[in-house]
Amino acid sequence: MQVLVTGAARGIGRATCLKLARDGAVRGQRIGIAAQDAAHRPELDALVAELNGLGARAVALDGDMGNVEAPARAVEQALTALGGLDGIVSNAGISRPSPLIEAKLEDWERVFAVNTRATWLLAKAAQPALAASKGSLVAVASMSGMYPHPGLSAYSPSKAAVIMLVKVLAQELAPHGIRANVVSPGMVRTMMTELVYQDPVLKAEREEQVPLRRVATPEDIAAGICFLLGPEASYVSGENLLIDGAFTGSLLGRIPGLAQLRS
User: Fold this and answer.
1) pLDDT per residue over 140-166, tens digit each?
2) Gap between the Cα atoms of 47 and 32, Å rounded
3) Which of 40, 92, 235, 254 is the residue whose CA sits 20 to 30 A from 5?
4) pLDDT digits (tens, 9 = 90+) for 69-100
5) In the beta sheet, which residues pair with residue 139?
């Protein structure tokens, strides 16, 4: 399997690359991984070294997914380095928090460029290669794309757009043998959110909100991504896999007064 992963240096992208390499080693397969990131080059290089140490064939790619030319360039570089592509993981994402009414136009456009447009452009560029391999695309959205998240400006709209974009891609690419799916994480402890979890009170409050009583790790989300990429999901396309520990499904159960209604 040859896979391009964007936003790979940290968090969910890093965990996905490592799981791909480790799973391949268990199966006796040498996985090809093109790990792309716009920043954090020392961490990206360290990841690639670790992946190669696990038996993968890994390369590091630069590129800002918000640049209109970067997705196609990343696909071309991945194909050159790996000799083919079986999977794309469109994971790169950003946020520019603010109330929508106060949001700046340039921030809105930047968030949509990275979070939404890049997935479309990756799919366009990779379609011939994925058709040849009967491959798969997985995009990382968010529970914030399924439910309104006030205060995050374009983030929720951009992730909602990713979900529908991939559902349309699944329909249009299916005749070529290509699958397209989405993973929507709930609360995840990553370097982007680490400051919150360093506060023991906030950490406990967040964990209490999740029915499984813990916040996700990047590895939890990577497991869903790798499942959708792999042969076990060969008949799964156009789906949005919500990985949130049952958090969003628990909201109606918290309406005040339910205990009195049941008595």
Assistant:
1) 999 999 999 999 999 999 999 999 999
2) 13
3) 235
4) 999 999 999 999 999 999 999 999 999 999 99
5) 90, 182
- Residue ranges per domain, the chain? 2-189+216-262
CB-neighbour burial class of residue 239 (10 A; exposed 0-12, middle 13-18, buried 19+): middle
Two tokens, residue 37: 């990131």
What Cα–Cα distance (Å) separates residue 143 from each residue in 87, 99, 106, 156? 23, 18, 24, 8
Give the residue among 133, 222, 139, 223 at the shortest CA–CA distance from 178.
Answer: 133
Report the alpha-carbon distance of residue 44 to residue 36 in Å, rounded.
8
* CATH of segment(s) 2-189+216-262: 3.40.50.720
Tokens of 125: 């560029």
CA distances from 247 to 91, 212, 226, 242, 243 (A): 22, 8, 22, 10, 9
The residue from 147, 155, 197, 235 that is catalytic is 155
**Cα–Cα distance, 153 to 99 (Å, whole number):** 5
pTM for this entry? 0.94
Q: Is 155 a catalytic residue?
A: yes
